[in-house]
Amino acid sequence: MGENAAATTAAIIVIGDEVLSGKVEELNARFLVRELRALGVAVRRIEVIPDVPDVIVDSLRAAAAGFDHVFTSGGIGPTHDDVTIPAIAAAFGVPVVRDEELSGLIRQVSPLERNLRMADIPEGATLLRGPGSADACWPVVAIRNVYILPGVPSILQRKFVMIRDRFRTSPFWSRAVYSREGEGVIAGVLDKAAADFPNVAIGSYPHIEATDHKVLITFDGRDKALVDRACEQIVVGLGAAVVRVE
Amino acid sequence: MGENAAATTAAIIVIGDEVLSGKVEELNARFLVRELRALGVAVRRIEVIPDVPDVIVDSLRAAAAGFDHVFTSGGIGPTHDDVTIPAIAAAFGVPVVRDEELSGLIRQVSPLERNLRMADIPEGATLLRGPGSADACWPVVAIRNVYILPGVPSILQRKFVMIRDRFRTSPFWSRAVYSREGEGVIAGVLDKAAADFPNVAIGSYPHIEATDHKVLITFDGRDKALVDRACEQIVVGLGAAVVRVE
Known about the structure:
2 copies of one chain form a homodimer. By secondary structure, chain A is of the alpha/beta class.
């Protein structure tokens, strides 16, 4: 998949028994893949894992080593099932420390000692805000290439939007061709284009419920000219099978 | 998370660049977690990974060794991006072979030589159908504890429903309590119940958009009496904070 050869990559790790049990619909990975795509970042892995420290440690270590950015979602509140912060600290071999700035923010909104647990961060973590954010707004905790986001979708979205400009890179260029012939008929043409254009990601998706076409063929890459040429080659190769080009 | 201590476990591996790029909404893992939950199977991991053979091999090996059942979705058509079958074969160290029974089924519906690629399976794989299925219906290909499902949601659903009875185990028992106090206030009560009932999974989820409560507390386990007792202890502990019990 050549689209990603030189791309900035990311992994998303959703921490939450509630998603694995089907009780809660997963919205955070869905939001992040679209946002990151628009920023030019290629999400290469999504994991949904349970609230189990050892599992989080293993996933975090592999993802932090394998991708440019890692986004975690969930497990950062004040209750017994909020185990993300200690697990991330363990993954990097650092202790958990209580941050003074976060403690101050929490004390402004809550008299409860217990809520101060939300001021605990891995040692060496930094607090990130957006360029126009007031100092009083709640920051994103980040350590190395890991960005720690909450599980509540509306808060995750607000926090990600605040910091998203720092992830912006060159965007993807995309085309699409709809074929009235099925995959078996067009596979040879697709194979050749995939071989001729290693830096263009060519995807093939049967749309069995569609009435005017059978397959959607997608083209993605950072080099607009290459993407357009790959698309053109397939349009020529498919001939009368082409329903439309986007 | 005691709910899963003795549970039958499963992992779901979604293979597809189209989900990672945000072009296609992920429906298959969502369907499978609910179905498996209803059958009493605890999904302990979901991964969305790209159409890259080495990545599929690594994920497959880890999941097949770590969970009772593994379900894959996607990458099994006749085009260049359909790499799941060779990757699963490689994960188990077996060659890909063309299955005669599947070849016959394909020849009935398509004259295209190319489509016979969909008759390729890992050596040693079996073809599964449901108890009442006609021999002519399209089977699920399975090898050891791995069930290979397609990416098209409507077909995946039909195939899973055909074989689902073989995964049925003792069901979960669930309760829920809604609290008008936030997590910081109730965390002590939750901690104690989590420690007192290690075989009941107790989850705590802030509902910041709700108007009549602040937190949903969930209880899940295989032992109904234990689940009910854990729920009762928290209801007593929360006192006037309880909005309702389900």
